[in-house]
Amino acid sequence: MTQATPARRGPDDRRRELLAAAVADADENGLRGVTAATVAQRAGRSKALVFHYFGSAHGLHGAVARVAIEELDAALRAPESVPPAERPTRIAHAYLDAVAEHEAIWRDLWGGALVDVDTDEMLTAVRESLVGRMSLSATSIGFTPTPRLAALARGWVALAENLTATWLTHDGGTAAGRLTRDDVESLLVASMSVLLPELPDPPRSTLAGITGAVGRAEDGSAG
């Protein structure tokens, strides 16, 4: 009886295989450490095949970044069944999970390791999603943010990313001075209060209750 010949891998399968190797490489070494040679070695393929599917090192880095960004965007989609009052905490938890999954990639993205129009557009979109879903604003009632709210939202995203980066890099001196994951999660929710003056009701009232509850819990634990 003759042995069946294994089916040839199609182009999409080969690209997925190479991209998975590139993401694994970036998770270990960051975007800057990913090259056609390292991906080819990890996947057991040739450098020529890597360039065939991704065109250049920059194209390879962009494809890896897209994976991390799309996974984060998917993680931020809290089920419709989650009550509004629980959404910010649920989303903050999912946000930290997704970023920690690819922390080396996110550190490089936040550090400007990949600068191009496509990546900037994807980052802008996922940042807007984070604010919208955390604040129960544009995504829940469909209003157009004012310039003042948009500016505050960008500032809050920068704060959120800096807080998360500090936690991921264990910055803060001694172990006693370092942020824990619970610290970061509660700070992300409580700091949303900066948006309150520019939000319309009902999101403003809902978010005020959530951020106030987090603040009171923080005060109680410190007392």
Automatic annotation (TrEMBL):
The keyword Transcription regulation applies. Residues 35-54 bind DNA. It comes from the Bacteria. Residues 12-72 form the HTH tetR-type domain. Keywords: DNA-binding, Transcription, Transcription regulation. It holds the Pfam family TetR_N. Transmembrane segments: none annotated. GO terms for molecular function: DNA-binding transcription factor activity; transcription cis-regulatory region binding. InterPro entries: DesT_TetR_C, Homeodomain-like_sf, HTH-type_TetR-like_transc_reg, HTH_TetR. This is DNA-binding transcriptional regulator, AcrR family.
